[in-house]
User: What shape does this take?
Amino acid sequence: MKGKPLKVIGSAAAILALVAGSALAGPGGFGGGWGCGLGPVIGQTLTPEQAAQLQKLRQEHESRLAPLRQELWAKKAEWRGLIADGNPDPAKALGLQREMLEISDEMHREMVEWRTKMLDLVSPPNNN
Assistant: This one.
């Protein structure tokens, strides 16, 4: 008899976690977190030329990020494998972590450059 209330509470908690998780995921199951969206130009009225230029900028940005993402995923997989080994080499683990941070920094620099180019494209010139 004592086990039944625990099962009910556990089941309710599991259902709540599933519902809350899907609610937080956002439309289509994708979170509203970091991404390659066009945040700086949301709400802007764009000319067809600006829209085409933005699309080109995004494609260029994605083509520069794709190999960096692949490299980062490969390093993460290597790091996880090393850690899962049970007796990882601390120097190698730290080296892999540094490499992952360098790749991540490069990705962030690319993102800042891309966003700056987008803003330059849609912002009116400053006549000061």
The two ends are 79 Å apart (CA to CA). The first helix runs from residue 3 to 25.
